[in-house]
């Protein structure tokens, strides 16, 4: 047994754990990431970054690197395969970035390494014990068992989270009744009507029967597609079983006939429509984030994005707690803010499944819903739910319109010319935009961190407002009225 010490142990180097570790490292927190796998699989479940994820990556200067690795820019999202656009949302990124999950992970891990934090691979968390001062985390490597002592442990260890189970936190929800398969297929001859480049969700997926569905997403390499199919009302006996090449070929034949010819099936995997959410995201010194805290059918492409946003919310709060800048109540706001957001995602996924055209009346309902979704206000509402742009955190006390809302990142006017506010968030601190230095001391009192960037601006986009303080994750948390 080895005794090592660190501030935070992150269990799991998926997108959530890597984003969180990046945030903690940026804030000067000593973090150790333990990952069960010896190597990244290179396989991608998720294929997209939603607009709100693009926004938070931009806050950290990470977006351009993600864009370099992306294979598509998609101008809309979807709700139950009904395209919904981002018109009406004031965002600089009204699109989804097509990027394989493996690329997101590789990129975040590279960035983490530049901050001096390495992922310890082949290190599987077995269990942990916490007391009022620390958590001891037992993990297994090829050379035996080790124990790591930390101030906090965060379970980012995915759907079957050992950390969640160790906490004994309930994971209520439904097992679901359907299944899906994802397969990356290289075609010699692509199916008739398939998009050559992924630009829109239109025609990407569709119901094929009362409960069955199919979809084809071009992956950037000529002839290479993500093929998705499944049934929302029945499932194979063993959802964890490997999907055979024959299964995928049969499904392709059923879906596209003989017009398509397949050169290679690179990988295939099954998934379920189970939906569960951990009752609590925090118990003492142990927290949960990402799929460890919530699972759902991948409708709308939300899971990875939800995990990254969990990490953005938790990172600065945990850092402030570790550094002793904030009391325990700040860390409690992680669950208070993120549990409802996770619940909303499970809710919208269930609603999407509810739009399955199972019967005469549900087909009519779906058609009416599609008409409604074409209305700008409805489309905005739906795309806001799925993209994360609609998230607004509740605030208490004052009711300024900026409070709880995200930085929309329009240029602000300064004496030196226009300035893009997102550039002020690179170091992960709080950001104050103010028309007068008189508010700086008050802002400091409201920021539970000495890391505060102050920017004098000549005007702000809200009437009768002289200052707005943003949290490190880009949500407004304090304002000063005109004196
Ligand atoms: C078919 C499919 C398609 C999807 N498509 C999309 C999409 O288009 N868009 C989207 O946003 N989301 C999508 N998702 C969801 C997305 O893939 C997940 O939400 C995302 O992977 C969650 O990231 P995570 O880091 O929380 O968990 P994971 O990615 O599961 O990572 C957990 C990590 O922890 C490690 N680990 C597990 N146990 C231990 C342990 N005991 N000790 C140490 N390490 C451990 C694992 O090896 C893994 O590396 C899809 C999911 C599926 C199944």
Distance between the termini: 61 Å
The number of distinct structural domains comes to 3
The main sheet comes to: 8 strands, mixed
Percent helix range: 25-40%
Shape: globular
CATH superfamily of the largest domain: FAD/NAD(P)-binding domain
User: How many DSSP H or I helices?
Assistant: 11
What is the CATH architecture descriptor of the largest domain? 3-Layer(bba) Sandwich
* Coarse structural class: alpha+beta
Count of extended strands: 27
CATH class of the largest domain: Alpha Beta
Report the average pLDDT across residues: 95
CATH topology of the largest domain: FAD/NAD(P)-binding domain
Structure ligands: flavin-adenine dinucleotide
Kindly estimate the percentage of residues that lie in beta strands according to DSSP.
25-35%
The rounded Rg comes to 23 Å
Poorly predicted runs are none
Question: How is this structure best summarized?
Answer:
The protein has 483 residues and is an alpha+beta fold.
């Amino acid at each position: 047994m080895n005794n090592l010490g660190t501030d935070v142990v992150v269990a799991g180097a998926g997108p959530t754990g890597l984003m969180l570790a990046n945030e903690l490292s940026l804030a000067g927190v000593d973090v150790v990431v333990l990952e069960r796998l010896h190597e990244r699989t290179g396989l991608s479940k998720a294929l997209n970054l939603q607009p709100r994820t693009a926004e938070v990556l931009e806050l950290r200067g990470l977006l351009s690197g993600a864009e370099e690795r992306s294979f598509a820019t998609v101008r809309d999202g979807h709700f139950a395969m009904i395209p919904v656009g981002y018109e009406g949302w004031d965002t600089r990124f009204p699109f989804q970035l097509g990027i394989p999950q493996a690329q997101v992970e590789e990129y975040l891990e590279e960035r983490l390494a530049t901050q001096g934090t390495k992922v310890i691979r082949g290190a599987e968390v077995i269990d942990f014990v916490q007391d009022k001062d620390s958590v001891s985390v037992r993990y297994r490597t090829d050379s035996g068992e080790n124990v790591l002592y930390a101030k906090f442990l965060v379970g980012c260890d995915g759907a079957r989270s050992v950390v969640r189970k160790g906490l004994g936190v309930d994971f209520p929800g439904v097992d679901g009744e359907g299944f899906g398969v994802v397969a990356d297929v290289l075609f010699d001859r692509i199916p008739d009507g398939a998009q050559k480049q992924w630009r829109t969700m239109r025609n990407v997926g569709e119901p094929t029967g009362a409960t069955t569905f199919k979809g084809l997403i071009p992956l950037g390499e000529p002839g290479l597609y993500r093929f998705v199919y499944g049934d929302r009302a029945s499932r194979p006996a063993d959802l964890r079983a490997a999907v055979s090449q024959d299964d995928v070929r049969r499904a392709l034949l059923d879906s596209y006939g003989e017009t398509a010819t397949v050169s290679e099936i690179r990988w295939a995997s099954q998934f379920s429509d189970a939906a569960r959410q951990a009752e609590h995201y925090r118990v003492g010194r142990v927290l949960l984030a990402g799929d460890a805290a919530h699972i759902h059918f991948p409708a709308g492409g939300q899971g990875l994005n939800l995990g990254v946003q969990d990490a953005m919310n938790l990172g600065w709060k945990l850092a402030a707690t570790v550094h002793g800048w904030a009391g325990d109540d700040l860390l409690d706001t992680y669950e208070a803010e993120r549990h409802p957001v996770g619940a909303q995602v499970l809710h919208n996924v269930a609603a999407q499944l509810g739009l399955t055209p199972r019967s005469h009346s549900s087909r009519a309902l779906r058609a009416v819903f599609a008409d409604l979704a074409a209305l700008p206000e409805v489309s905005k509402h739906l795309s806001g739910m799925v993209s994360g742009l609609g998230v607004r955190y509740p605030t208490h006390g004052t009711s300024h319109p900026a409070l709880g809302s995200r930085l929309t990142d329009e240029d602000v006017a300064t004496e030196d010319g226009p300035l893009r506010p997102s550039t002020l968030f690179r170091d992960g601190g709080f950001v104050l935009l103010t028309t007068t230095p008189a508010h700086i001391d008050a802002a400091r009192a409201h920021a539970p961190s000495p890391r505060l960037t102050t920017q004098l601006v000549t005007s702000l986009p809200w009437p009768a407002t002289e200052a707005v303080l943003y949290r490190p994750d880009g949500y407004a948390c304090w304002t000063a009225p005109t004196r």
